[in-house]
Design brief:
This protein has 17 helices and no strands. It has 456 residues and is mainly alpha-helical.
Length: 456
């Protein structure tokens, strides 16, 4: 009985720590994803063409952003391990290197987005959409250097278990985004009405505002100053950059692979017309919002696993993962129930067009099915990231999404002409495969860890 009570207390304590860490992250991620929601709603109020242009444009830059954020997320387990092991000098060395890396990667994305107009004819995009998409992409591109530096600071903060700064800065960014979108899309205060194109520069303004907000947090925060994390006169260190890229590229690759399948679907649907792309974009915007909850808990799991691994506490590490996965599955069950029961109500906030509403609602019903496997795969990936295991998860994600999900989607969507529904059935297959294989990988890592400690 005493052992059961103690185990129950330990699980309760771990749940409390996880929720304390997760809640600000959930709010931060919801605020951040709400920016895409705002783009979708405001461009949808202009026309279906503007909404389709924003949807296709987002499908091009969003995977690049996730690749950037994935690479920089290597900072979280690196800082978490160092903090757990009490290596303060490592933290003050790594943080500036992360800022340098984020700024350089953001600048590379800026350059690539300015070449995106070469891609559009190859994608068979409707000719009238091309200038809208190009203008939108050029506008958003100018924010990427700031976004890279901002997320480097954010991941350093999260590695120290400080998640409130992410939440505060994300809400500040959301407020700026709403105002900037309103002014530029609809042409208020004497500004020209840019329509969906205005979402691009509005997003860039938001990225710079978030960077300045995060910079202010680090400048004023006692722990950040104590650890000298804004030492921007620090010399460039090739060795640290190589270590960050070695850990971060597979994470970024995994996120890019997962997101790019959604983006590829939007691009493949372009041949079915603006209506099909708009329905996909609406369903995707809603599911992105719900996905922020498991994604945030997965980030918290990664931080906690990093800390417990740094302190060499394998039993506590397993407890963190057990509690994290259970909590995430409960949350996914709630979102699954809401989406399956009220699909029309969920998408009605995006459009009043009956035909578009019905098309989006049918996709959202399919999205309800993959809520549980999606939550499971992101949690397992988060736990493996905390263990600094990133290469195998990336291979698993590549096989699941591009080797299983997309071929099934292409066969059903293009060959059988099921359109968006066929692709979303492919997504269900891909995400389920990823959940199964990543669970097996995590179990294997824990089994290996148990043998290692038994031998030592």
């Amino acid at each position: 009985m005493g052992f059961t009570d103690r185990r129950s207390k330990l699980l309760h304590a771990e749940l409390k720590k996880l929720l304390t860490l997760s809640l600000p992250l959930i709010l931060a991620q919801l605020a951040q994803s709400s920016m895409g929601f705002v783009d979708t709603v405001m461009s949808g109020r202009v026309s279906a063409q503007d909404l389709a242009a924003v949807g296709i444009g987002s499908s091009i830059w969003f995977p690049m952003m996730l690749l950037l954020l994935g690479i920089l997320s290597a900072l979280t387990p690196t800082i978490a391990h160092a903090y757990g092991a009490g290596k303060r000098q490592t933290i003050s060395h790594v943080a500036p290197q992360g800022i340098y890396l984020g700024t350089i990667l953001g600048t590379i994305i800026l350059i690539l987005l300015h070449q995106a107009h070469y891609l559009l004819p190859w994608l068979q995009v409707e000719p009238q959409l091309e200038p809208l998409i190009t203008g939108y992409l050029e506008g958003v591109s100018w924010g990427f250097p700031a976004l890279g530096a901002c997320f480097a600071l954010r991941y350093c903060s999260e590695g120290l278990c400080l998640t409130r700064p992410s939440m505060l800065v994300s809400f500040f960014g959301l407020a700026v985004n709403i105002v900037a979108n309103y002014l530029l899309v609809f042409g208020k205060l004497g500004l020209p009405a840019m329509g969906g194109v205005g979402c691009g520069p509005a997003s860039a303004i938001t990225m710079w505002a978030m960077f300045l907000g995060m910079l202010l947090v680090f400048w004023r925060g006692a722990l950040f100053r104590q650890l000298q994390m804004l030492r921007l006169n620090a010399a460039w260190c090739w060795e640290t950059q190589k270590q960050l890229l070695k850990l971060g590229l597979p994470i970024g690759g995994g996120l890019f692979i997962e997101c790019s399948i959604f983006a590829t679907i939007a691009l493949l649907l372009a041949r079915f017309g603006a209506q099909a792309v708009a329905a996909h974009q609406i369903a995707l915007s809603f599911t992105t919002m719900t996905f922020m909850v498991p994604l945030s808990i997965a980030t918290a799991i990664s931080v906690r696993v990093g800390h417990t691994t740094g302190r060499k506490r394998p039993l506590q590490t397993r407890r963190v993962v057990y509690i994290g996965i259970l909590t995430t599955l409960v949350c996914a069950l709630v979102s699954c129930t809401i989406m399956a029961t009220f699909p029309h109500l969920c998408v009605s906030i995006f459009t009043h067009d009956t035909q578009l509403l019905n098309a989006a609602a049918s996709l959202l019903f399919l999205a309800a099915i993959f809520q549980l496997p999606d939550a499971m795969q992101v949690c397992c990936a988060g736990a493996l990231r905390g263990l600094k295991d990133t290469k195998v998860p990336m291979i698993i994600q590549t096989i699941s999404y591009w080797g299983i999900g997309l071929p099934i989607g292409c066969y059903l969507g293009l060959h059988l002409n099921w359109g968006a529904k066929g692709f979303w059935i492919g997504l269900i297959c891909g995400l389920t495969s990823a959940a199964i294989m990543l669970s097996i990988r995590l179990f294997h890592m824990f089994k290996h860890s148990r043998h290692h400690h038994a031998n030592n």
